Amino acid sequence: MSTKAVIVFSGGQDSTTCLIHALPNYDEIHCITFDYGQRHRAEIEVAKQLSVKLGVAVHKVLDTALLNELAISSLTRDNIPVPIAAHSSDGLPNTFVPGRNILFLTLASIYAYQVGAKTVITGVCETDFSGYPDCRDAFIKALNNAVELGMDYKLRIETPLMWLNKAETWALADCYKQLDLIRNHTLSCYNGIIGSGCSDCDACVLRAKGLNDFMKNKTVITNSLKEKLDITT
Q1: Dihedral of CA 193/196/202/203: which sign?
Q2: Which residues make beta-bridge pairs with 60?
Q3: How far is CA 113 from CA 58, 156, 159, 186, 228, in A?
Q4: pTM of the model
Q5: Per-residue confidence of the chain (233 residues) as pLDDT tens digits?
Q6: How far, in Å, CA of 175 to CA of 135, rounded?
Q7: Nearest to residue 158, comparing CAs of 127, 124, 122?
Q8: 172 with 225: CB under 8 angstroms?
Q9: How many CA atoms within 13 Å lie on the side-chain side of 111?
Q10: Spatial strand order in the sheet of 28-35
């Protein structure tokens, strides 16, 4: 029986690493990228290019512009500056887009229902992250339960990076011989700069720190990763 997975795919480090990790484990993978009028919309083109490069069966870009109208954030409004990580204040950063993962994962689950996929994969993580409440494990489990009940359909929302730090996420890419691809061709930067990014926003700082930690201590970090995910490569 053919196995299918749907991946919420932004073309960033985390979702691309999830895709690389999933490719050997499913017969067919569908990637969904959401166009919500995001400030860093260059990620949409990056996602298209990476899906082709990695041989994804289906890649869809869905228009979710309504989110831009409802959610006020520095990622949805050009007149709100993206904060420099070193100057970030306590509490939710202004890069938080309220409801984004609620909407994206719900739509991905509906799509999974239609194509007969039993798995939805997302790169959210609550180990090294920006403090977004919709990246937490408790939220994912609650939403997973809700969409199963609401569609009467057995579905698992998988979060392979949930308990990995950024260094271990880099190690995961390295395990699949795709470190250079992730390093040079993904877009995580809130200011829309591919690769190493702007070096100032929270996403770039987390990404750079993780890479630096990984490069300094590859063996220990890789062994930790393999133990967490039971990887034998």
Answers
A1: positive
A2: 32
A3: 15, 11, 18, 28, 29
A4: 0.91
A5: 579 999 999 999 999 999 999 999 999 999 999 998 777 788 999 999 999 999 998 999 999 887 777 655 555 545 444 445 444 455 677 677 778 899 899 999 999 999 999 999 999 999 876 678 889 999 999 999 999 999 999 999 999 999 999 999 999 999 999 999 999 999 999 888 999 999 988 889 999 999 999 999 999 999 999 888 887 65
A6: 24
A7: 122
A8: yes
A9: 26
A10: 58-63, 28-35, 4-8, 119-121, 156-158
Q: Which residue shows structure tokens 């609550």?
A: 126
**Among 2, 6, 44, residue whose Cα is nearest residue 22:** 6
Return the exposure string of 73-105: e unless at least 16 CB atoms fall within 10 Å of the residue's CB, then b: bbbbeeeeebbebeebeeeebbbbbbebbebbb
Neighbours of 233 (CB within 10 A): 9
**Which amino acid does the sequence have at 50?**
L
Classify burial at 2, counting beta carbons within 10 Å of its beta carbon; exposed 0-12, middle 13-18, buried 19 or more: exposed
Token pair listed for 73: 């954030």
Q: Where are the alpha helices (DSSP H) in the chain?
A: 13-22, 42-53, 65-70, 100-115, 137-151, 166-175, 179-185, 202-216, 218-229
